[in-house]
Write a structure and sequence with these properties.
Blueprint lengths: L1 H18 L15 E4 L5 E8 L11 E5 L2 E2 L16 E3 L10 E2 H12 L9 E3 L6 E6 L22 H8 L5 H4 L2 E2 L11 H5 L2 E6 L2 E2 L4 E2 L2 H5 L1 E2 L7 E3 L5 E3 L13 H6 L13 H4 L8 E2 L25 E13 L2 E11 L4 E6 L11 H4 L3 H4 L6 H11 L4 E5 L2 H8 L1 E2 L3 E3 H4 L12 H8 L16 H18 L11 E2 H8 L1 E2 L1 H4 L7 E2 L4 E6 L12 E5 L2 H13 L14 E5 L2 H6 L10 H20 L4 H19 L4 E6 L6 H17 L15 H14 L1 E8 L1
Length: about 700
């Protein structure tokens, strides 16, 4: 009887396997041995099937896959709010904070959760693998004083510098840098929704330099990820970083078509993808492009390259131009210089613009009216000469070369640019000046006009670029990159974004770099900013559009054509209406004192009318902002990191004093100027005031929570 039951059981198993097109397991085979079968597409898989227990999930008709003797677990579902697996961010009152949290710490928190950043020391993060999305919104104009229980928006005024310093504190007491719990009942009504979204208000220190009176860009700080240590750096006997020279061909430093377009270079047709767009390309009127039919035309066969050659068989020409003004912001070519790899001057000519010059800017260009009066060479003459000189194997190098090519109205696809080769420490869009690079890396003083009539020398500048590139080729890619402290934040997420088992399955156990998608929702044109590197860029003209853009980026487009279905992993956004209302940035900056006075009068009149109606613009703006953030928060899926940051404190007094200092230096450095005749004075008193104003400007606020 027992044998009959076994035979019947075997026939049942055989029947079940037959319905799944799988072969029978041989009785003689060990039970743990994996078996191989073909799926419906004919692909071969390795594993075995095991009947699940009575309490296991009954998907797949009660069967589960076994690999290496263990069942393969399915992706875990999104945990519920009360689950022990739900991600969280905790702050303990026993934490040993020693100072305000830097703005960069909030950036690094996103990198820790989503990529390869270090673990934060100011808060603890639990269940990191369970985070699904992150949304960071910068709202310049937010101040800690707005969240005080007794704030009166009808009398909300800019404090004096001493009052502001007292509010900010000197940073010596924990009261100055510990986060403040948000009590909804104690907040002004317009800001009470913040207590529903965030547990604390964090005092945040914006990037800058108190000693030298500088405030660095919070936008650049947030969108620039710190670089990982270079493999080409070793330690010397004292434990310090030392560079190992790696001779490198100049072709390794050529900018890609994507980099050229991102940095605003004129478009050459070979920079476009093959197809209708390239075939239908036409130069704008007055523009020309070099005779290059495809990027491969620049390649030189190895058999033609001399052994050890840095130029790799290419002709290298350094280019620099001098320009003058024919209108308020219209630059025209007045001098062009080309220098060969050997340092010989190939071309150096003055050019007569076709429009009258309104400003020779001699202190920068070195060009005077007397120099240009006898000149008959035109822009088209120069273009014709350059088209003869520049062939497919020619590499043009220079500093911020996009500006030179724009005044030349010429496009060329093979570019080495020293402003890209030696990036600014705080990342794009900032650039190092050629003068700084020459001082630092060549120990050379250039552009010594100092605002005088001597100006710049385009041949000298071209040779300086040439020497910088030569030294870079001799030293290698890692040389002189210590000045650059980061890479684009969106690119870092795309390159090193990490998935975990909870969201990507067993293959991601321990973390798997698969890349993260991102969206930038910003005011204005995003094509020339760091936001251009995001997976999706959504330009906006109002905070209402920003709100809609963030929700769209989080949820995704129904067709998934622009924003991926299900939304992106990381969203960056900036709301600016509060910033404009506060006067922290001028949406339409007045160009004359009369216009500034008129703008001030209009603002005062508007505020007066508002007060008559019992509605105060600042309070109304904060109420609208809170509602926008609350709607965004409601639209976020579970397990989403949510941040709101002011970026900085009030920068107005700092900006006023910095403008004063710039005017003083300009007048002081003018030849023949006398101290007692300067319109602006700059003494130790003003210097001390500037340092205080910078401290105020660096006092921001931040909020962080998990939805």
């Amino acid at each position: 009887m027992g044998k009959k039951k076994n035979n019947m059981a075997n026939r049942g198993v055989a029947s079940a396997l037959a319905t799944t097109n799988l072969p029978l397991i041989n009785d003689a085979e060990p039970a743990a041995t994996p078996m191989t079968w073909s799926d419906s597409e004919g692909k071969s898989s390795s594993g075995s099937l095991k009947r699940s227990g009575p309490h296991d999930a009954n998907d797949d008709d009660g069967w589960q896959t076994i690999e290496r003797g263990r069942p393969v677990k399915k992706h875990k579902k999104i945990p519920t709010a009360n689950s022990a697996r739900y991600p969280a961010i905790h702050f303990s009152e026993k934490s040993r904070l020693q100072s305000k949290v830097n703005l960069s710490a909030f950036r690094d928190l996103v990198l820790y959760i989503f990529a390869d950043g270090p673990a934060p020391q100011w808060i603890s993060v639990s269940q990191r693998p369970e985070f699904r999305k992150a949304v960071v919104i910068m709202v310049p104009g937010l101040e800690e004083a707005m969240f005080k229980a007794d704030v009166d928006f009808s009398k909300y005024e800019t404090p004096t510098l001493d009052q502001a310093i007292k509010q900010v504190g000197d940073g010596t007491s924990p009261d100055h840098y510990y986060p403040r719990p948000l009590n909804k009942a104690a907040l002004p009504q317009s800001l009470q929704p913040f207590a529903d979204m965030f547990p604390h208000l964090w005092p945040v220190k914006a990037p800058g330099d108190d000693k030298y009176g500088r405030l660095h860009s919070p936008l650049t700080t947030m969108l620039t990820a710190p670089l990982n240590k270079s493999k080409d750096k070793t330690k010397d006997k004292f434990g310090a970083d030392s560079h190992r020279d790696v001779r490198t061909r100049i072709t390794e430093f050529l900018a890609t078509p994507e980099e050229l377009m991102e940095n605003g270079f004129p478009t050459h047709p070979v920079m476009l993808p093959e197809g209708e767009r390239r075939d239908s390309f036409r130069d704008p009127e007055g523009w020309v492009h070099t005779r290059v039919n495809k990027l491969e035309d620049g390649d030189v066969p190895e058999s033609e390259i001399q052994q050890g050659s840095i130029t790799a068989g290419r002709e290298v020409l350094a280019l620099d131009c001098e320009m003058c003004l024919t209108g308020p912001s219209e630059l025209v070519l007045t001098r062009v210089s080309l220098v060969s790899w050997g340092g010989e001057t190939v071309l150096d000519e003055l050019v007569k613009p076709d429009k009258p010059i309104t400003d020779y800017v001699t202190q920068y260009s070195g060009i005077t009216k007397e120099m240009l009066d006898p000149v008959t060479t035109t822009l088209s003459d120069i273009q014709a000469k350059l088209l003869d000189l520049l062939h497919p194997r020619t590499i043009l190098l220079g500093h911020s070369l996009e500006s030179d090519l724009k005044v030349l109205q010429l496009a060329h696809p093979f570019i080495v640019d020293t402003s890209m080769l030696f990036p600014h420490a705080r990342g794009p869009p900032l650039k190092n000046s050629l003068k700084y690079l020459a001082q630092r890396h060549l120990n050379r003083e250039v552009q010594k006009g100092g605002g005088t009539i001597n100006g710049h020398d385009s041949v000298e500048d071209a040779k300086t670029c040439l020497d910088l590139v030569k030294k870079k080729c001799e030293k290698g890619k890692a040389w002189a990159t210590g000045d650059s402290q980061g890479e684009n934040f969106f690119r870092r997420l795309a390159r090193a974004g990490t998935a975990y088992r909870a969201t990507a399955g067993p293959q991601a156990t321990g973390g798997l770099p698969v890349g993260k998608t991102s969206a930038a929702v910003e005011w204005g044109d995003l094509s020339r900013s760091a936001c251009n590197a995001a997976t999706v860029a959504i330009p906006c003209k109002s905070d209402a559009e920003v709100e809609a853009g963030v929700i769209r980026a989080v949820k995704g487009d129904p067709d998934g054509l622009e924003v991926p279905g299900g939304g992106v992993d990381f969203v960056w956004a900036r709301m600016r209406e509060l910033e404009f209302l506060q006067g922290w940035a001028n949406k339409h900056k007045p160009t004359t004192p009369a216009a500034a006075a008129e703008q001030t009068l209009e603002a005062e009149q508007a505020n007066g009318d508002a007060e008559k109606d019992g509605v105060f613009p600042l309070e109304e703006c904060l109420f609208t902002l809170s509602q926008r953030l609350q709607r965004i928060h409601a639209a976020l899926p579970p397990c989403t990191l949510f941040m709101v940051l002011s970026g900085t404190g009030d920068p107005r007094e700092m900006s006023r004093l910095q403008s004063m200092h710039s005017q003083f230096k300009k007048e002081y450095n003018t030849l023949g100027s006398k101290w007692d005749q300067l319109s602006v004075k700059w003494t130790s008193e003003e210097e001390d005031a500037l340092r205080k104003a910078v401290k105020v400007a660096r006092a921001g606020v931040g909020f962080v929570s998990v939805k």
